[in-house]
Amino acid sequence: MQTRTSLGDLARLFLRLGATAFGGPAAHLAMMQDEVVRRRGWLTDAEFLDLLGATNLIPGPNSTEMAIHVGWRRRRWAGLVVAGVSFIVPAMLMTGALGWAYVRYGARPEAGWLLHGVKPIVLAVVVQALIALAPRAASSWWLRILGVAAVVAAAAGVHELVVLFGAGAIAVVRAGTARGGARASLVIPFLPIGAASAASAVTLPSIFGVFLKIGSVLFGSGYVLLAFLRADLVERRGWLTESQLLDAVAAGQVTPGPVFTTATFVGWVLDGPAGALVATAGIFLPAFVFVAISGPLVPRLRASRTAAAFLDGVNVASLALMAVVTAQLARAAVVDVFTALLAVASAILLLRFRTNTVWLVLGGAAAGFLAEAVGLAR
Asked: So what's the pLDDT on residue 159?
């Protein structure tokens, strides 16, 4: 804290992290803690934990929001923009390149087999994330009951925003912290966002609107993004097939940086480079806004019983949405003996040996290609 941090220092650090931070949000946060606390002394451990708690109390990608928080702490508005954009851009460029290749070559038989091998790997990665997150999200008997109720509601077709914020509201009420409109305001501001009606045509404004809504209301792991993308783009609008959605998630897995750059891939598939830019801007813009608003309030948020209770409910509902969408996507990923064996083998490697997900995704692609080369029938 003694010396002034330059914007160049912020840009160099977060460009490097954005280009090399594989392994998901937990790994990203660990790398950031090592860089900004241990190596540079920009934050103390206590300050880092305070900011981590704040990212859990607002929607959006936690690791990206942490980068934005660090930028805000070091250089206020300019730092906020530089740190956040620098962390996002490397993954956006890589995922966009995969989107270009997918649109150009995705229909070729060899490309189809590459994806045929990747999809069961992605399914196993999501299952592993569910298993890892469930004990923390459902840490008490009543949260487990709330989670089961959220699974039932989501499977019955209840809107995902109703499931999320309903669970949050129930948790607040149960904790005895809802004392009227002022306390309930944590939930109310986000509800109107979910009221947007589905549009049938793919336009740049409609792409931006869909991803802005998702970025404004998505709590929990980046994998919960699956539930929102499937509900909006597959079921309501018919812009993507379930197979294309899994391909998009695979692209997000094989690239470093925030999982939310899956939006870049989807945007490219929908409307080329303009769609990729618009989708990326839409899904990440709320993170900058929420950090700018919540940054000065971090000490109060950390001490708020209402915020903590609301987050408990939202987190367990997020996992419920993840579980439901994973079961639904399994139908598109596991279609024969080959994909079933890949899914089981990758699950074992992830759960027993903690194999890096990037190597698994690349291995799945290679397995698909080799299966095609030797003439293995589906």
From this structure: 79
CA 256 to chain CA centroid, Å, is: 13
Cα–Cα nearest to 367, from 341, 349, 347, 348: 341
**Token pair for residue 258?**
């925030």
pLDDT in tens, 239-256: 998 888 888 888 887 788
Q: Which two tokens stand for residue 124?
A: 């196993």
Q: What 3 state SS string does 314-374 have? A: HHHHHHHHHHHHHHHHHHHHCCCHHHHHHHHHHHHHHHHHCCCHHHHHHHHHHHHHHHHHC
Supply the DSSP symbol for 57: T
Instruction: Look at residue 233 in the predicted model and tell me its pLDDT.
Output: 92
CA pair distance 196, 338, nearest whole angstrom: 41
CA distances to 237, 305, 343, 347 from 340, in Å? 30, 45, 5, 11
Tokens of 97: 């390149």
Rg (CA), the chain: 20
Distance CA 300, CA 284 (A): 25
Residues of the chain with pLDDT > 90: what percent? 30
Rounded to the nearest 10 degrees, the angle between the axes of helix 141-155 and helix 305-333 is 50
Burial 220-230 (b: 16+ CB within 10 A, else e): bbbbbbbbbbb
Q: Are 291 and 69 in contact (CB under 8 A)?
A: yes
Where does the chain have alpha helices with state H?
A: 7-20, 25-33, 45-56, 62-105, 109-137, 141-155, 160-174, 181-184, 204-217, 225-229, 242-254, 262-294, 298-303, 305-333, 337-353, 357-373
How far apart are alpha carbons 287 and 132 in whole angstroms? 25
Reported for 148-151, long-range contacts at CB under 8 A and 24+ positions apart, including other chains, are 148/320, 150/316, 150/317, 150/320, 150/321, 151/320, 151/323, 151/324
The length of the chain in residues reads: 378
Residue range 174-200: mean pLDDT, rounded: 48
According to the model, what pLDDT value does residue 264 have? 96
pTM for this model (two decimals): 0.72
